[in-house]
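Sample entry (439 residues):
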Amino acid sequence: MRYSLILLLSLGFVVTARAQSFDKEKMDSLFTLMAQHDQGMGSISLYQNGQEIYAHAIGLADIEQNIKATPESKYRIGSVSKTFTATIIMQMVQENKLSMDTPLQAFFPQIPNADKITLAHLLRHRSGLYNYTNQADFRNWMDQAKSKEELLEIFVENGVDFEPGEKFAYANTNYVLLSFIAEQVDNQPFADILQARIIKPLSLKHTYFGGKINSGQGEAYSYYWVDGWQLATETDMSHPQGAGSIVSTPADVDAFLVALFNGKLVSEASLNQMTEIIGGYGIGLIQFPFYVKKAYGHDGRIDEFYAMTGYFPKDKLAITYLSNGIDMPINDIMIAALSIYFGRDYMLPDFKPALRLSPETLDQYPGTYSSPTFPLKVTITQHDSTLIGQATGQPSFPLEAIEENIFQFQSAGLVLEFVPGEKLMILKQGGGEYHLHKE
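Predicted structure, serialized as tokens:
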């Protein structure tokens, strides 16, 4: 349910993709390595043209009972639930049961600024309402049941951070309220609405509104790593509601996205509204790049469950990774899987401990490097014991030392070799090699 806007990869200063068939053996090797080095536990699914073409699960769904994860293991999907909730609300708008201008006052007049906050503000995280999961004491009661009335009282007490429409600010409060609105419109619990409007029409066999975790029913527990996998606190699903209470499998999430983008759940006009990105967010969707490609989807976290899903319309590709334990960042996992799928040059990680260089050694490298034959300048800075790289107009990226004078950004298959005496940096990526000199 916690949210961080993740851009898969926009480094992009070398974009020489190589056309080749999907290397499933290499994909298997990636997840085998992750499992061998305790880099994560979870499950991935890829759909191409509406059919599953790859699935792989690693780790355990229940460590105490030694229950191995399978592609059918079910995970809490956190804020990916918001895409489901937004779809339900858009269906109700199409049915003229709601409009984008419907004020929150029509349902919950006690909420601050209810007369100014519209359905569109809630859907796009522009309501100004305080994000209730940011409360200082949230972790003290996250595992306790909360009634609708108790949650509404919390929202009233928390108040607002800014006026509606003023800016984007992610708040789980918005989507909890949207699920309460849906319940009033359809006059049934949100779990039943989800079942009737999405799960049953799409025949999703492993998706539902979650409850207490039960590994005997194929559900995974979540874990964090401290000298081994440790069981995480379990959020009570009574309060995340449409903001983060759905349980699913990667294949079911892929099937949902395929249906959404192929007109089986909402109209083309509604989908166009959902994919219109304003201030970094659409309606239940974010857009993220993979080099020159664009995907729509969402990421999520609840307890130690992590989720990331995306649909590439031009490639008709859906990809979802759901995890119940993370060491290798989920963003890096998705970059790796997509690199392998699209046939890009990608070095499988070896997960060796990072080489630590002395501050005196690192002092040799910072500066701005350029070349008349290379389109961008690359600036190297030092932060504590880490080197940070940044190309002109691009996000910064951490560099890992693999030898003295040689560093890598593994996710992008990038290697930088320094020759300090010559003020030279050799950039290697995608089969190319470029000599840049310190200015």
